[in-house]
Amino acid sequence: MSGINKVILVGHLGKDPEVRHLEGGVAVASFPLATSETFNKDGRKVEQTEWHNIVMWRGLADVAAKFLQKGKLVYIEGKLRTRSFEDKEGIKKYTTEVVAENFTMLGRKTDFENESAPRQALKTSDTDGYRNNDADDLPF
Length: 140
Hints:
The chain is mainly β. The chain has helices at residues 58-67, 110-113; strands at residues 7-13, 18-21, 27-41, 44-57, 73-86, 92-105, 123-125. The chain has a 5-stranded mixed barrel.
């Protein structure tokens, strides 16, 4: 039996997506995503925030650059990837990232009314390019 590598996150963007274009014009977008949990500790409410490094490729990266921005709430599905690299001093480092396969913008209707982005273009996937959802299908 093969393993499963699936990540589902709902959180807020820590900054606007940073988009780079690699050789051959392949787009890659990256940004930090904050997820928070609240729990009781000794009778008081405590909030714990985790930061995740998100990476999006190709058309998904282009759509993220167009629609996502710092502070926006987003649902992301993807998988974990760990890669290694050498820092400026030549020391090998490792980083774990969430490679997004699709995302859905979340929030209240008013979060999108003042933007130029059409409301029906809020869901997208790396596997099927660009999903077009009618405004009536949105959860708000």
